[in-house]
């Protein structure tokens, strides 16, 4: 069953690049340019997964995950970022990030989204990957 995905990034070119890559695997794909727009879409649609940049103007990905977690503890968040930042990763983990992807390394993106949709327990958890920084 195809699911509903929200992609959040302040780079419109990246959003347009990811849409055709993911459209065959998602029932509906919504896009937002910042966390504030994403929160509005989240309230308007029943989403199955959120794929979000961390560093964005107006409302960051971390602020977005905090706001959503206050309302829904189960929706998977996958973060992608061009800047590996230990403090951001720790903060995202505290709010239950499902996984992290380094921009522009999207080779495993479909697999990670599928695992998030299905809450696959065999998926190597982000906690295992990053336990050395916790």
Which sequence of strands runs across the widest sheet? 2-1-3-4-5
CATH superfamily of the domain at 35-116: Response regulator
Q: What is the fold named in CATH at topology level of the domain at 35-116?
A: Rossmann fold
Biggest sheet overview: 5 strands, parallel
Q: How much helicity do the residues have?
A: 25-40%
Beta content comes to 15-25%
CATH architecture of the domain at 35-116: 3-Layer(aba) Sandwich
Give a count of the beta strands, DSSP E runs of length 2 or more.
5
Q: Rg to the nearest angstrom?
A: 13 Å
- What average pLDDT do the residues reach? 79
Order of helices and strands: EHEHEHEHEHH
- Summing up helix and strand content along with how strands pair, one would put the structural category as alpha/beta
Number of helices: 6
Q: Outline the low-pLDDT stretches.
A: 120-124
In whole angstroms, how far apart are the ends? 35 Å
> What is the CATH C-level name of the domain at 35-116?
Alpha Beta
Tell the overall outline: globular
Ordered list of secondary-structure elements with their pairings:
Blueprint: E1 3-8, H1 12-22, E2 26-32, H2 35-44, E3 49-53, H3 61-69, E4 77-81, H4 86-94, E5 97-102, H5 109-118, H6 126-129
Parallel strand pairs: 1-2, 1-3, 3-4, 4-5
Helix pairs in contact: 2-3
